[in-house]
Amino acid sequence: MIKGSCCCGTVQFELSEVPSMMGTCHCSRCRKVGASTLVFVKSETFQITQGRDQIATYPAEHPYKYDRCFCSVCGSALGEVLSEDDSFPLAANCIDSDIGLENSFHEFVSEKPNWLKIGDTAQQFDQHPIKS
What we know:
single chain, 132 residues, mainly beta, Metal Binding Protein, Guanine Nucleotide Exchange Factor, Chain A, 3-stranded antiparallel beta sheet
């Protein structure tokens, strides 16, 4: 079981399997909420074990798809943990153990600030990666 939590521990969750991939989003929205590196999890493998009632949301506006979730106590960005989709992004910073994944891609590189230098060889996309 993979465990995770917000900074203060109010919100806690478990994953029954390793996320499918890790990616970094450079859009202004992800940067500003403090959760640019995300892992993608299947909803059937994810369970909030504590603090569901302490999760606040910030609604998505076009062109963004997901409502952002936060701990209402400490403000930790959680990703999209209240999503009803079959899979969703979860803030990698909230996972409490090593999951053995490396970054697979960078998206919205067109919005990346000049001062940020990408230091890995993961594939880069100006916007969302195109599904084939």
